[in-house]
Amino acid sequence: MTSSESAAAGVPARNEEIACFYRENSRELWAIFYSMCSDPERAHDAVQEAFVRLHDHQGEPVRDLRAWLLRVGQNWLRDVARRKSSGCSLLPGLDDFTGGAVDPRQTAELHERQQQIRSALAELNEDDRRVLVMKYSMDWSAAQMAAVMNCSAAAIDMRLSRARRRLAEILVEQGYQHE
Amino acid sequence: MNSSDNRSLQAQSQLSDQQMDLLLRDFFASEVPRALPESGFSAPSVRRVLTTIAPAVSSPAASLRSVRLAAALAIAALALCALLLNQDAERVATMAAKAKTAGPEDTMLVSPQGDTGSRQVPVGADGLLLQETDQIQLAPPR
Q1: What whole-number percentage of chain B has pLDDT above 90?
Q2: Mean predicted confidence (pLDDT) in B76-81
Q3: CB within 8 Å: A150 and B39
């Protein structure tokens, strides 16, 4: 087998490896990016961008895949934040109005509520926001979060409770009307 | 409306912990993109990712094992060093003994300038030249 043939045979294996890593880690990466930018679509784009760049990566082999993806996604988020100050973006959820199956008023209200919660989340400190994102977007237990954040499960429970209380206070200050 | 009225209104509108829990569940259910796969925490690879995030977290049994392994490796390395040093010392002692037993008659007729390439160099204290050594008959005359 020549070197070009062996390289060609290695491509599907690498693609499969990347796909497997995506299946197992993309949600967690999304949660980390989301806790950085408080924008679900942008966090998702950051995940996609990081994996696309990994796919196109031709340089030295990546030793710590997760750290590499995190760095690429984080840099991409920074670039977007910098560009956003001088550019414009589509209205959030504009595509949802075109289907016609959902009541546009309800959709608009839902978007407004979601936006209020997002901005309230953005006001929390980073650790509080992170535990809420891990708990509610990935459904991790206190023990699992404790392993990640290097503290006890009891401390995580306390932090979760405090973060929820603080978020409720911010929402009330913002005039959030719950049903 | 005075401040106490404000406070009571705020207390009424304050969300309870249970309400917040429900609200956040609903919020993240629509917030997480549907295209993202479910994350299986029990998957070995996710556990590996977690250890990458928190390398300091390890069980006491595992750390005890690693301490024992490190101690065994250190002892083995010390033993190897001692063995090598011992062999080296023996070799030096043998060489020294040989040097002591060798007399002046064992010295070889080698010029200190033997590598000069010139044959006009004295090779002994008596001024014998390298060129002249060619004519020395090594075999006894018959």
Answers
A1: 12
A2: 92
A3: no
